């Protein structure tokens, strides 16, 4: 697991501020009739105009996967994460849409941040709105659980305990992660109180992680579509996703992607 110097963290923080501004703008554009292509093109232009490069575009992920085709992950309704912008889809009133975005800044030799928000398009059903709000709060509780020297499982326990109390479930196959020099780094950051090796990892001062609850309205099980990227709920229930990049300081967590 990498730890970063104050000089490095200052650059990561600048990246995060720019990323948060871009995500807020993209989220405002998620209205009925907007297309996934329009949102993706807006995100890519804003990232490049800010002096960065999209860290998801052409990302290969697992060996053998087709490179990811867009700068923005756009996951709609029962899609959990990693929905590509293409083929193009139009947003409808009542949809809930996860917008996940990453940037490397400065473009040639910088650092990465990763952040996501789920928004309701137009007028949402009460249960959809509740799911979004619970997932947002689960993220806040996960961040608040961080302290210098804490174990990773502390984060997951805070997230999962709250989500279960609300009658929802957390996805277990996909987790948060370290971030900084690369899009995905050690450690894994599960959204449940893992008793495995990953749960025992201790977070020192200077570690940078992305905490990202993925919460399903129904069961926790997921499937992956034929495109190899789009993760969906196995039971067809709605799913929501929020994510922040944070740095561990001696005084606790500091959010580097303050979009909320």
TrEMBL record:
What is an example of a GO molecular function annotated in this UniProt entry? Answer: initiator methionyl aminopeptidase activity
Keyword line: Aminopeptidase, Hydrolase, Metal-binding, Protease
The free-text note explaining how the cofactor binds reads: Binds 2 divalent metal cations per subunit. Has a high-affinity and a low affinity metal-binding site. The true nature of the physiological cofactor is under debate. The enzyme is active with cobalt, zinc, manganese or divalent iron ions. Most likely, methionine aminopeptidases function as mononuclear Fe(2+)-metalloproteases under physiological conditions, and the catalytically relevant metal-binding site has been assigned to the histidine-containing high-affinity site.
Query: Which family, according to the similarity comment?
Result: Belongs to the peptidase M24A family. Methionine aminopeptidase type 1 subfamily.
Alphabetical GO CC annotations of the entry are: cytosol
Q: Which NCBIfam families match?
A: met_pdase_I
The enzyme's main class, written as a single word, is hydrolase
Q: Name one GO biological process term.
A: proteolysis
Q: What is this protein called?
A: Methionine aminopeptidase
Which residues does the UniProt record annotate as the domain Peptidase M24?
Answer: 12-250
List, alphabetically, the CDD domains matched: MetAP1 (cd01086)
The enzyme's E.C. designation: 3.4.11.18
Q: Where does a divalent metal cation 1 bind?
A: 100, 114, 243
UniProt cross-references to InterPro entries, sorted A to Z: Creatinase/aminopeptidase-like, Pept_M24, Pept_M24_MAP, Pept_M24A_MAP1
Q: Which cofactors does the annotated protein need, by name? A: Co(2+); Zn(2+); Mn(2+); Fe(2+)
**Classification via HAMAP family:** MetAP_1
Query: Briefly, what is this protein's role?
Result: Removes the N-terminal methionine from nascent proteins. The N-terminal methionine is often cleaved when the second residue in the primary sequence is small and uncharged (Met-Ala-, Cys, Gly, Pro, Ser, Thr, or Val). Requires deformylation of the N(alpha)-formylated initiator methionine before it can be hydrolyzed.
Q: Which residues bind a divalent metal cation 2?
A: 114, 177, 212, 243
Q: How does this protein assemble? A: Monomer.
């Amino acid at each position: 697991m990498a730890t970063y110097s104050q000089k490095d963290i200052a650059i990561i923080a600048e990246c995060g501020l720019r990323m948060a501004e871009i995500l807020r703008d993209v989220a405002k554009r998620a209205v009925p009739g907007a297309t996934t292509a329009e949102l993706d093109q807006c995100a890519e232009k804003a990232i490049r105009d800010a002096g960065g490069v999209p860290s998801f575009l052409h990302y290969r992920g697992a060996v053998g996967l087709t490179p990811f085709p867009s700068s923005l992950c756009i996951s709609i309704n029962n899609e959990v994460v990693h929905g590509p912008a293409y083929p193009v889809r139009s947003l409808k009133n009542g949809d809930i849409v996860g917008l996940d975005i990453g940037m490397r800044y400065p473009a040639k030799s910088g650092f990465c941040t990763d952040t996501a928000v789920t928004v309701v398009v137009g007028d949402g059903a009460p249960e959809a709105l509740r799911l979004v709000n619970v997932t947002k709060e689960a993220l806040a509780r996960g961040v608040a659980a961080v302290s210098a020297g804490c174990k990773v499982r502390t984060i997951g326990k805070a997230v999962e305990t709250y989500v279960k109390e609300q009658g929802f479930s957390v996805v277990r196959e996909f987790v948060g992660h370290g971030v900084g020099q690369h899009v995905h780094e050690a450690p894994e950051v599960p959204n449940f109180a893992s008793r495995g090796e990953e749960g025992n990892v201790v977070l020192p001062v200077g570690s940078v992680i992305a905490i990202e609850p993925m919460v399903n309205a129904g069961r926790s099980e997921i499937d992956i579509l034929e495109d190899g990227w789009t993760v969906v709920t196995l039971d067809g229930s709605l799913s929501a996703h929020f994510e922040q990049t944070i740095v561990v300081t001696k005084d606790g967590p500091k959010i580097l992607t303050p979009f909320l």
